[in-house]
Amino acid sequence: MLAKKTTWEIGDPQTAFTLPAKFFYDPEIFDEEKRNVFFKSWHCVCHESDVPEAGSFITENIFEQSVIVVRGRDNEVRAFHNVCQHRGNRLITERRGKVNVVFRCGYHSWSYGLDGALRAAPRSECLQGFDKGGHGLKSVRMEIFAGFVFINFDNNAQSVAEMCPGAEAEIRRFIPDLDNMRLIEEVDVSVNANWKVIQENSIEAYHFDLSGPVHKHLTSLIDYKSYTLKEYGNWWTYMAPPKAGVTAAYGKAINGASYQTDWFFNIGLFPNTTFYCFPFTDMLGTFIMIPTGPETSLLRFGYYGPNGQIPELTKAGIHWMNTELGPEDIALNLTTQKGLHSFGYDQGRYLVDAERSNQSEHLVHHFHKLYYQALRP
């Protein structure tokens, strides 16, 4: 059961109050999130190209659960629980790598093929009625969506495509080289803030010209007044066309640069996956908000370029994100998380206007609604 005084009235976004502060730090609510939100949601693990050949693997940890995604010798990509079927030892500790033949448990050397089948179990010939066929790795539901590998622990969940109809077409409209993307860089950042605080910050532009200097630089690259934030059920977009006459970005000249799109493009999938592209960069970024505790998160930034190429302007954009924009947002995340504990605060008001303008917080309300409905099904 949820702790007392932790209900929320969804209400009309123009008159509603925000989620009560406890939703951002209460351990009991966090346990509910694990069970009802994250163990029943789709999680983006990697691009399909991150497991390019037989034996290539990547692991994903969702709380105490760990999953291996691996490409088999038949070229199929599969997902398995990252645990030996003998005594429960975790098989793989690395984020990514390659095995030549089998996954071998470092405890008692039980070994599993790339298809999950048990290949060897030392001294198992001593056991009566032991059948290797019944001791293979346990599968995890997996789907490839828009070229990315997603996993879900809930076998009854809608597919990603069913959950987000039209989302892949929208991504491909802005990212023409989606199928040719290769990883340029992956950056993990630990943040002492609840994952929802971080999500909220990313899906409103109210603060863009009101907070720090890096956000003001971002607004100098885009037609800020044309910034649109749209909800489509379990997915949403927020984007803006480039500002006319821009000649430089991220300290580099735009003239002669190649790019996927000159728009600032973002698409979010509930609960915590975002695909994006900065203006004038030849890349696709992934932004995953991974909760690690009631008030801690791991932010995973993936940067992908067509065939792994990195033009100078794109390289500058990635550096700008890692060293300027990201830290400026994280500083806001940290002060917000601290403020949510104040005796002087419980709920606020969404800044939502009837026009759903560029500075409206209607996507924050929409996200809160999806979250609350998942938390309290």
Automatic annotation (TrEMBL):
User: Per the UniProt record, which EC number(s) apply here?
Assistant: 1.14.13.-
Question: What enzyme category does the UniProt record give?
Answer: oxidoreductase
**Pfam families from the entry?**
Rieske, Ring_hydroxyl_A
Please list the GO terms describing molecular function. Answer: dioxygenase activity
Q: Kindly state which keywords UniProt assigns to this record, in alphabetical order.
A: 2Fe-2S, Dioxygenase, Iron, Iron-sulfur, Metal-binding, Oxidoreductase
Return the InterPro entries for the record: Rieske_2Fe-2S, Rieske_2Fe-2S_sf, Ring_hydroxy_dOase_asu_C_dom, Rng_hydr_dOase-A
Question: Gene3D superfamilies per the record?
Answer: Naphthalene 1,2-dioxygenase Alpha Subunit, Chain A, domain 1, Rieske [2Fe-2S] iron-sulphur domain
Q: Which domain of life does the UniProt lineage start with?
A: Bacteria
Cofactor(s) the record lists: Fe cation
Q: Which PROSITE patterns match?
A: RIESKE
Q: What is this protein called?
A: Aromatic ring-hydroxylating dioxygenase subunit alpha
